[in-house]
Amino acid sequence: MEQPQEADQSQSAAVGAREDSAVRLLPARTIRIAYVLVFLVSFGTGLIGWYLIGGPGHFEIMGWHVKLVLGVSFAAAVTKLARACTLEDRAWNRLSLRWLGYVITLAVLMAAATYYYHLQEPIEEEIVPEESESPL
To answer: Distance between CA atoms of 95 and 85, rounded to whole angstroms?
Structure first.
């Protein structure tokens, strides 16, 4: 009876060691710096991509608060996705798929905001030049 207990303990110790080694390959300070870099890069590329895909006209009439909230939320979700991919041995796990869903949802919200501001865009009416009356 002692052999199954010892096997369970050694198996759980091996699993624990594997989890610790997967998470702690780098010092915590280095990991935090990497996550900050992921956040900053995803914030910048998210806003630039939104600007280029949605069009500069719509992006410029959009309120700054909409761009800030959606941009920061998108960057935070991408950072959490990167963290979820590194937590386990398999990159695509339940947590990473959930964060991927959040990233896609935020991209759809960005598209919806762009479409809303497209509909609210002032219409440029055609200016018909007035016919100048020339005295003849």
So the answer is: 8
